[in-house]
Amino acid sequence: MRRFQFDQPGFAGAFADFVAERRETPDEVDLIVRDVLHAVRTEGVTALLRFAREFDRVELTEETLRVSADEIAEGAAACAPDVREAIAFAAARIRAYHERQRPADQQFTDDAGVQLGWRWTPLESVGIYVPGGRAAYPSTVLMNAVPASAAGVERIAMVTPPGRLQPAVLAAAQAAGVSEIWRVGGAQAVAALAYGAGPIRPVDKIVGPGNAFVTAAKRRVYGVVGIDALAGPSEIVVVADGQNDPDWIAADLLSQAEHDPAAQSILITDDSAFAERVAACVEEQLGALATGKDARTSWETHGAVVIAPLEEAPGLVDLIAPEHVEFAIDAPERLADRVRHAGAIFLGRYTPEAIGDYVAGSNHVLPTSRAARFSSGLSLYDFLKRTSLVKCDAAAFARLAPATIALAEAEGLPAHARSAAIRLGQPKPS
Fold this sequence. Notes:
Layout: E1 2-5, H1 11-20, H2 28-43, H3 45-56, H4 69-77, H5 81-99, E2 106-109, E3 115-122, E4 125-129, H6 138-151, E5 155-160, H7 167-176, E6 180-183, H8 186-195, E7 205-207, H9 212-221, E8 226-227, E9 235-240, H10 246-257, E10 264-269, H11 272-286, H12 292-302, E11 304-307, H13 313-320, E12 324-328, H14 333-336, E13 344-347, H15 353-358, E14 384-391, H16 394-410, H17 414-424
Parallel strand pairs: 1-11, 4-5, 4-7, 5-6, 7-8, 9-10, 9-12, 10-11, 12-13
Antiparallel strand pairs: 2-3, 3-14
Helix pairs in contact: 2-3, 2-8, 2-9, 4-7, 5-6, 5-7, 6-7, 8-9, 10-11, 16-17
């Protein structure tokens, strides 16, 4: 963990260098992914079964690649009742939040008499990648599938690495409206969703987080299919004053550090003594965490404490452009309203980021690695597309055609010009 003092000489440069440090994947991963994608594209399901043996040490057949309806039902039924209730509670809140995002179709006639508008339609099919390595992630299923279902996507295909499917994941898939589940992970799963492989039909868009290989594969198949984003390691900034319980703030910092050794947790506070207490609480909590090994690596390698006036916090947050930021202060809006770059903002002492990960209703799929400067978190809009509508009658066309002809001729596109001129009965443009 590094410590920065706002009023010390060289702070701006040192902190900017820290923020810019690379926490991403080595370039050689992309070369491996390239070969995996090519194999699946050319060999189809044969490559998937081979990679299951090589990478996952699992023997699958084309028939056992798909998780059957009975397996899903039995697995979901085995989920603990309190977890099933929590899944239903979260799914309802996520659906309600995202349904409020639904945009309206529009049609109007402008002063030239042209009828204009747009309409929104859902994607036909979406693939959802659900990790299966470090832990079971029912929340990943909910956050990706529920908005797709709410948007009206007809087919939601889920892929997850082969192995024991956790009951909570299957219960979440049932609650979220997942259409089909396939035992395939890694870059090969992305390839199967993009190109199709045996019984797995291609989709229109791939969403969901994954490891470095999954992210590299999504980057390579973009254009063949749509993708949500290129997810990097998780990150959180906590802006806190000395009135907080340091144990609470330490827990919030570790809630992201435990995700991955490359995750990043940053505390910004104006109270140096409070910062020391938080650091001590972090150390104490690390010893009791089952995820302590990864969390410690994250905290010691990428963590930071910044001592700065709280009025400077919005500017520092914007420089970091984090996935999550908490304002654990009184009247948090006074600072949060000045933040331009953040995936999600959590306001007040009783709004830890973990609430947003599970049950607040907002989406936890958020931009990482400073992408909050130019992108947003997953939403209903990711599963809709907008189509423009244009209609001219003869009078409206006559008003638009002369400018159309002039611009087409200026661009050296005579067929464009003629398609307008011919309707006016004008001579053929040169």
